[in-house]
Each structure stands twice: as C-alpha cells, then as structure tokens.
Specification:
single chain, 604 residues
C-alpha cells in the first residue's frame, strides 16, 4: 500500500525571529509574488531531510535553522538542521518535548558511527529492504546504492523539473536509477528482480570488456602458443641440466681446493719465513755498512784535515790546523794506545757484521729456494687438477646464463598468450553466468507478469487526466515503457511548448498519486509537492484557461479518487505558485492557503 509521508509543520528560525507554518492539511497552496520565499519554504522541507539546498541570498544570510514536523507511517517525528553551524548534522528531536533523541548525518560520512537521516527515513517508511535488500550489494551496478534522495525526487516537482524533459526525474536520479525507483515503488519489479537485473548489467559490461581486451591482445600476438610452450619447456630443461652440471663441477672444485689447502698453507708459511729472512738480511747488511764506516773513521789519522765547523754550535773553524796526534776539537794530544784499541774494536765489529751478513744471506737464499719449490708444486697441482675444472665451470656458467636468458625471453613472449587464455576462460565463465542470470530473469518475469497490469492501469489513468485537460494541439502524451517518463507523439517533451510541457509533467506526477489513492498498490509516499506550475505555463488567455483546467481537474481528480475508495488513504499535495487561478468555491475550500507578500515574506 502507499506510504504515509505527511508534512505537519515547518518552523523557521532566523535573525529576525521564529516563524511557524501549519501544513497539517491534505492540500496546501503557497502563493505570493516573486521573491517572497515560496520556493525557500519547500526548500525548508527538503533541508532537514538531509537533501542539498542552494539557498538564495536572503535566506542564506538570515536563516539559522529549520525544523520540519512529519508524520511517517502514523509516527510523529521532528528533524532540525542548522544553516550556520555543523550543517552536516541533523537532530532527531521529540515532537512533544523538543529534546534531541539522536544526532544523524545529513550525508554518509566515512568512519562515522552515526546513522544517515535518509536511511532513517527509508526505515520509517518501511522501504529499507526494498531499496537495499540484504542479498544485494551492487544495486545499480558499480556498487551504487539507491537512496532516499532518489525516492524523494518522485515526490517533489521543482521549478526546473516542472518545465523539464527527461530532467523530470530530478537531479538525484540517473535514467537507470529513476526507472529502478519507479519500478520498485509501483511493484513492477521486486528486490530479487532488481538484483538480477543489476547483476545482468554488470555481467554484460564485464563480457564486453573481456571481449575488447581479448581482441586487442589477439591483434598483437604472433606465433603459436603451443610452439612457444614447447620451446620454453626445452629451454627450462637445458637450464636445469646446465645448472645441475655446474653445481657438480663447483662441488669438485671445492673438493680439489680443499685437497690443495696443505700446499697453500705451506706456501703461506714459507712466504712468512722467507720474508723474515729477507728482513734479517737487510738488517745485517745495514749493520755491516755501519761497521765499515766505523773502521774507516777509526783508521783515519787525526789532525790531517782542518775542522771546518764546531760539531756543537756549528760555528766555522776554518783555518784551524790540528797537529798530528791531537784531537781535532780541543787540540789536546791523543793516546796512541787508545787509538789502536779503537781501530781493533772497529775491525772486530766489522768481522762480526760480515759473518752475520753471510749467514743472513745464506738463510734468505735457502728460504727463497724452499718457497719457489712450494710455489711450483702448488702451481703444478692447480694446473693439473683445478685449472680444467675452472675452465669447465666458466663454460657451463655461460651456457646456464644463456639458457636462463632464453627462458626469460620465452616467458615474456608467452605472457600475453597466457593472459589471453585467462581472459578467454574468464569470458566463458562470465558468459555462462550471464546466460544463467538471463534465464533467472525470464523466470522471474514470468512470475511478475501479472504486475504488468499495474503499468496498464497507470497509463489509463494518465490518459484520463490528460484527456480532461484538453491540451492544445493534442500532443499525444503517453508514458514511455522503456524510460517510464512522459513522452509526446513527436518524441521528447521539447517538441511541445512550455505550457503544454508543464501540464504533461504535472499530470504525470498526478497519475502516480492518483494510482496510490485509488488502488493503494504502490510503495510511493503519498506526498506531492509541485513548484510554480502557473509560472511555467504562462500568463496568456489560453495559458490561464489551461492552468485553471489543470487546478480544477487536479483537485477534482484527487477528491474523486479519495471519495471513490472505501477507506480514505493518507495523502498530501503542496502547490507553490505566484497566484491562484479562478476556481469554484468548493474547490477553494479544499485548499489550505499560505499567502506570502512583500510586506510579509517567509523569512522575517
């Protein structure tokens, strides 16, 4: 049955004070000249529902908060939202004592633990599972979910929409989401059918993508995948064989190296011994040189040469003649016996140094010969045992590297073939699943075939309302079965004038409300807000007659639908216009009017 969504009261807080407006009537008409706040008033209904509003200059400067009191499926609630601070939060308040019961997010926020006001409204309307069934994650394809904003677009015909074409679905809706929402609320599809349809659309898109990718890859492939696989198998086998042989030779090399370790250790020890012998030989030669110079100095006759400089202060002593047998510095007489002893001691030291030098030279020669012999033996062992192994290892390393390079090259050549194979498998799986989903859709359509009567009934009611309006030119207005939007005989609504277009759009929304009132077989909330139909129709004589017929027929139709049902269904119609056409008194009495003037605008 139709869902009860009824506006009872709107409270506006501004810098000029507080204004409370009574909406608790089935038909409410808000009228007044331009720039008095008519559209702002219906925006004040939208705003606390968490929906976006582009405020005009005056309300944006003076409004501070808006509260709307609603009746939803028999339950009274109130929603309040600030326009100046924390505009992303909506307060769910008690309509009885005004206390805040819960803070809600106006729109979904990441990592927020609060509920979203639109989801709360769907839950109160009993439409949560219809719009987001537990079995569905991607409801409109690509993970998109239906929202309260997309449902509310069916209840509010704004100024832009009332004169629109396909835009009559509202900015919140795409063509796909609008059709889905209409089918859901009218019972033309159910949640399972919607999930199947979304899955079919996703699979169709996936299949198309897979086909394009396989075609693209196939265009650039050369050679046979089977031949490449065979060559890759051979290359991998060669790589494994060369690696095995290489590891074996390296093992043999390690064994041969280990066997030659004693020789290397011996060579190292002899190198140390020979090095020490060489150092000792150098030291002996240096000592021999010192001894030879000492002998020379001892054998030199004192006083034969002048002393040029003092060895202490370096002052010149030129011209000083040293007598024979005297000291060259102090000119004292030397002891000839001491001189002979000094010569003998120097000669004895020279003999000892010569003996040490001979012995050191001999030891150095012997260690050198032993080292040369050990090195020759190590080189011979290396030449006979490890040399051939090193050559073989070098050859096998080159062969293994070549095989590995060929394997890598073949794998790169095979990668697109393998990707193509995976894509083909995925394509076959997606096509198979798509066939299954389409079969399930056909089965589900058969089960839902009886509901097509609903669409026929809506078309009949639409034709009846259009017929009562006597539209000029008889444009042949109808409901398109594919988009579920209004069309005319010539095609889009842009083919007819503004006045006729507005009348068709209003009649189209009237049809949904009429269907809800007459049959109740709909989940559409029975609230309809129409903004400025008279303004969009025009002010000519024929335009005035058309808007009068539109109002009269609308009110008559609502009254007739309400009176023709055994149980009165809850509903509310809110009309916004610049002024009211001439209407019979009984129709005027059906409306609760809210007049706005330039002296009494909406925002005080």
């Amino acid at each position: 049955m139709s869902r009860d969504l009824f506006v009872k009261q709107v409270v506006i807080n501004s810098t000029g004070g507080v204004r409370t407006l009574d909406f608790a009537h089935p038909v409410v008409c808000i009228y007044g000249p331009i720039d008095t706040g008519k559209t702002t008033l219906v925006d004040c209904i939208r705003y606390p529902l968490g929906l976006p509003v582009d405020w005009r200059q005056v309300p944006s400067e003076r409004l501070t908060s808006v509260t709307v009191h609603l009746r939803i499926e028999g339950m009274d609630i109130a929603l309040r939202r600030s326009t100046v601070a924390d505009t992303g939060t909506v307060e769910l308040i008690s309509p009885y004592d005004g206390k805040v019961e819960e803070l809600l997010d106006a729109t979904a926020q990441p990592d927020s633990g609060r509920r979203v006001v639109g989801e709360v409204l769907l839950d109160l309307l009993g439409l949560s599972e219809l719009f987001a069934p537990p079995t569905a994650i991607a409801l409109l394809g690509n993970g998109a979910r239906l929202t309260f904003a997309q449902l509310y677009a069916l209840n509010h015909l704004s100024q832009d929409m009332v004169d629109g074409t396909e835009a009559v679905r509202g900015q919140a809706n795409t063509a796909q989401s609008y059709k889905t929402v209409v089918e859901l609320v009218l019972g033309l599809i159910d949640a399972e059918m919607r999930v199947l349809a979304a899955r079919r659309d996703d699979l169709s898109q996936t299949v198309s993508q897979f086909k394009r990718r396989t075609e693209t890859i196939s265009e650039f492939l050369t050679g046979s995948a089977a031949e490449l696989e065979e060559e890759l198998t051979r290359s991998r086998s060669e790589e494994r064989e060369t690696l095995t042989a290489l590891e074996e030779l390296k093992g043999r090399m390690r064994a041969a190296t280990t066997f030659a370790d004693p020789l290397r250790q011996r060579v190292a020890a002899l190198e140390g011994t020979h090095s020490r012998a060489r150092e000792e030989e150098k030291a002996a030669q240096a000592a021999l040189s010192l001894a030879q110079r000492a002998v020379q100095r001892a054998q030199q006759q004192p006083g034969t040469d002048p002393v040029l400089r003092c060895p202490s202060c370096s002052q010149p002593l030129a011209g000083r003649i040293v007598p024979e047998g005297a000291c060259g510095l102090c000119l004292c007489d030397l002891d000839p016996g001491a001189w002979d002893e000094a010569v003998q001691a120097a000669e004895a030291a020279l003999g000892a140094a010569q003996q040490r030098a001979v012995e050191a030279s001999k030891e150095s020669g012997e260690t050198g010969e032993a080292l040369a012999q050990a090195r020759a033996e190590l080189e011979e062992r290396t030449r006979l045992e490890t040399g051939p192994l090193a050559g073989q290892i070098e050859q096998l390393s080159a062969a293994h590297a070549g095989a590995r390079t060929r394997t890598g090259m073949l794998e790169r050549q095979l990668d697109p073939h393998r990707r193509l194979l995976e894509l083909q498998r995925a394509l076959r799986a997606a096509e198979e699943e798509l066939r299954g989903v389409r079969e399930d859709i056909r089965t589900r359509k058969n089960l839902l075939s009886g509901r097509q009567t609903t669409l026929a009934e809506i078309e009949e009611q639409f034709a009846h309302i259009i017929g009562g309006l006597s539209l000029p030119g008889e444009p042949g207005a109808r409901i398109d079965h594919h988009s579920l939007l209004p069309k005319v005989r010539a095609g889009k609504l842009t083919k007819v004038g503004h006045g006729v277009r507005t009348a068709i759009n209003v009649a189209y929304r009237m049809t949904f409300l009429s269907h809800a009132l007459v049959t109740g077989a709909t989940d559409l909330p029975s609230l309809l807000i129409i903004d400025s139909p008279r303004k969009n129709v025009g002010y000519g004589t024929e335009d005035q007659q058309l808007i009068a017929r539109l109002y009269t027929h609308f009110l008559d139709h609502i009254t007739g639908a309400r009176n023709g049902t055994p149980h009165t269904r809850p509903h509310q119609v809110i009309i916004v216009d610049n002024d009211l056409p001439s209407l019979p008194a009984q129709l005027r009495r059906q409306m609760h009017t809210i007049e706005l003037t330039r002296d009494n605008p909406l925002v005080p």
